[in-house]
């Protein structure tokens, strides 16, 4: 009986470790989806700028499942943010032009 109790205890400890790892992996996947959507948005914005020499006509695409994108447009600069419903409090942002020229282009920053 004690051996069976020990086996159940070991299995429950291993299961709790697996659940924590799974949650961490899911959170990382959600953040990766936000970053990928911002990179796609940057590509489409730069393509529009190459055609019109302005960011004014850029349309914000729909994000991946659960990702919400918002964008502030100027003539020669833009900034965008992405949030995910399953990662409350986490926002990824990307900016191009203006003061954003001092940072690396097309690399989303998440906080």
Structural class category: alpha+beta
User: Which sheet architecture does the biggest sheet show?
Assistant: 4 strands, antiparallel
Please, what is the average pLDDT?
87
Gross morphology? rod-shaped
Within the largest sheet, what's the order of strands? 1-2-3-4
Q: What's the number of extended β-strand segments? A: 4
The poorly predicted ranges are none
Distance between the termini: 50 Å
Share in helix = 40-55%
Radius of gyration: 21 Å
Q: How many DSSP H or I helices?
A: 1
Topology readout:
Layout: H1 2-52, E1 67-73, E2 78-84, E3 91-96, E4 109-110
Antiparallel strand pairs: 1-2, 2-3, 3-4
Description:
The chain is α+β, with helices and mostly antiparallel strands. Helices cover 46% and strands 20% of the residues. It contains 1 helix and 4 strands. The protein has a 4-stranded antiparallel sheet, covered by helices on one side. The chain is rod-shaped, with a radius of gyration of 21 Å. The N and C termini lie far apart (50 Å). The mean pLDDT is 87.
Features:
111 residues; alpha+beta; 1 helix; 46% helix
What's this entry about, in short?
Helix content is 46%, strand content 20%.
